[in-house]
Amino acid sequence: MKESKTSLGMPVIDPDDIGHNQSTSQSLTELVAVRMSRRRLLGFGLASGGMALLGACGGSDGGGEPGGGDGGPDDPDPTPQVRLGFEAVPRHLDDLVAIPAGYTATVLFRLGDPMAAGVPAYLNDGTDDPATYDRRAGDHHDGMSFFGMGADGKWSPTAADRGLLVMNHEAITPVFLHPTGQSTEGSGVDQVRTDADEVLREFYIHGVSVIEVARTDGKWTYRQDSGFNRRVHTLTEMEFAGPAAGTDYLKTKYSPDGTRTRGTLNNCANGVTPWGTYLTCEENWAGYFRRVASTDDSQRSARELASFRRYGVSGNGRELWATMSPDTADDLYGRWNTEVRGASMTDDYRNGAFTYGWVVEIDPFRPDSTPRKRTALGRFGHEGACLGPVVAGQPLVWYMGDDARNEYLFKFVSAANWDPADATGGLAAGDKYMDDGTLYVARFDDSGTGEWIELRYGVNGIDASNADYPFADQADVVINPRLAADVVGATRMDRPEWTSINPKNGDVYLTLTNTNASSRPIDATDAANPRFYNDPKGAAQTAQRGNPNGHIVRLAEAGRNGAALGFEWDVYLFGARSSAPADVNLSELSDDNDFSSPDGLWFSEATPGLLWLETDDGAYTDVTNCMLLAALPGEVGDGSRRTITNVDGDTVRMQETIVGKAPGAEGLRRFLVGPKGCEITGIAESGDGRALFVNIQHPGEDTDEEDIGDPSKYQSHWPDGGNARPRSATLVITRDDGGLVGL
Ligand code: FEO
Ligand code: CA
Ligand code: CA
Ligand code: CA
What we know:
Blueprint: E1 3-5, E2 11-13, E3 103-110, E4 141-148, E5 162-169, E6 184-185, E7 192-193, H1 196-205, E8 207-216, E9 219-222, E10 230-232, E11 237-241, E12 260-262, E13 267-272, E14 278-282, H2 293-296, H3 302-311, E15 359-362, E16 372-374, E17 386-387, E18 395-401, E19 405-407, E20 409-417, H4 426-434, E21 437-444, E22 449-454, H5 474-479, H6 481-487, E23 493-494, E24 496-501, E25 508-512, E26 515-516, E27 533-534, E28 545-547, E29 551-557, E30 566-574, E31 598-603, E32 611-615, E33 627-631, E34 640-648, E35 651-659, H7 664-667, E36 668-673, E37 679-685, E38 692-697, E39 729-735
Parallel strand pairs: 11-16
Antiparallel strand pairs: 1-2, 3-39, 4-5, 5-8, 6-7, 8-9, 8-10, 11-12, 13-14, 14-15, 15-16, 17-18, 18-20, 19-23, 20-21, 21-22, 22-30, 24-25, 25-29, 26-28, 27-28, 29-30, 31-32, 32-33, 33-36, 34-35, 37-38, 38-39
Bound molecules: MU-OXO-diiron and calcium ion (3 copies).
């Protein structure tokens, strides 16, 4: 949503906002009146099923007390009613973090902070030595998990005072990274980067951080000299695993046998495994590659061109890395050029774009291990990968949003059934459960039911007979699941972001951050993406017409079985201004809990049923900065079916949908509002639920490069204050009485 000027001198739209789905699947222009069954598909008994819920994408298995009562440290009752126990934080537009009375927020880990012995403190004026950035905190902190660590240095889910905090660094705010922004020459397709130090900084500052954190005398700090600290970045060697590994699609000059690549990029949300490893998810990777059509189209096959169109691989390349010259012997810059330049696919990087867009597994407890890109989970704009309920003897399931307008919700179901003996298996367990399985895509029907459709070569029309894109094999399907999902009629959604599982009942939640009128016109709504309206801030702006405030869909798998092929769904919450009309503010939000553009979404494990909700907004930003809310949701089907009136100028259309029970003050409350220009994203808790880690991403990102010499014009100075350049940072939030956060 945010439109700003980059150091490259051009106004850019958030790449998240670019849609590439031209397919017509589920473009519902007519209403289908169908009876909604209020009955759950099957009863769900956690206790009776012998189900051990690990769930929750962001964190490892919490071992804290269930329930919480008043949440005080001495609360003896294991099953009291959970209630939100803080006063709502008002909306604000100030350059600060606001939290409820009785809580303390501390800055733990900022952009540039040193992560190894001997690395000096960050000067934060653009002059820090580029060679040190592989041992400094990255930029744009995003998805994050806490892995408790025992005295033996191994994963211990119940450890509460010491652990590894693993987090993504999605992207950069270039204006603040270098002395005066990015140095370039030329314009248009001829614009080039000119400073190798700046480019090296940027290579290092994307990716993932692993840091050791500990609570001593009630205070959380990270250990600068821990042997576990690690940066994974765009130069880190990675292995491919799963159906696409070793195929022609992934062959490059760097890896002629298609088994390896360098780096990970645009790491957005995250996930975990039941064996204590971290999943980092590559989201808007496509834009980083250079592929100027005028030089490249004629040398590409029709299938390649269809794939590039569907994934948005075209243009100069965000950050212009491919333009730095002269290149190095190992193609430091040329690897970002995905044009045909050599004699064959092993002489250039024409396949470079196929080596990104994956879920990547990292073992944080083995700093020397090589991360693995798990190709069975498909290649798309991965937001996150949320682990479903873990049940011995049943398959493992990960839910995954593809974050672009009109993209899909996917899930991966392992072929192997879970054996708890693999809980110490590390990356070898990943080989067992994540390299062989089935990828599905969701279709949400207006009836309130839905179906998971298998994406497998030779099934459901995914084969060589498909006219738009003749599929060649299963590797082709996992490399192009968007194209496969188009074939089977999956439902195009309003930008799928995070998923999370309610450990109390297994409901799967999915944030749909927002969409606009050009991506979903008023005659293209459906029951699961039902709204079209004009947001008052931008009546004249295209971006504010459509569904600018977003919503949250949830689904209940048939039989509460993650491998099920059917589900029931409803809309848990609609983002809106509290002042909006009833057909827009469908969840009856108040001044204490209204929000816009939900993105991060994460169920606590220490307090089952407690949901945290984070926003990445550009619509309600005339009234408030982005925020974190706490919620206690009910369940799929707790509301009612309803017909809403959508309006676009003179056009009026009725749309049926299924609205979850309005949350009220007891069910949803604003907990934190961040500084100017930020997004709130990434969330994790210590094993006992008494420390909440929250990331503040890109404060001040709307600062113009031309103002870098005048700190008074910076949009934000958070967190250091004064005249400082702003920095993305991790917060630790604790309750002053030591109790469970949020209760
Ligand atoms: Fe990187 Fe979908 O937010
Ligand atoms: Ca996100
Ligand atoms: Ca987002
Ligand atoms: Ca972001």
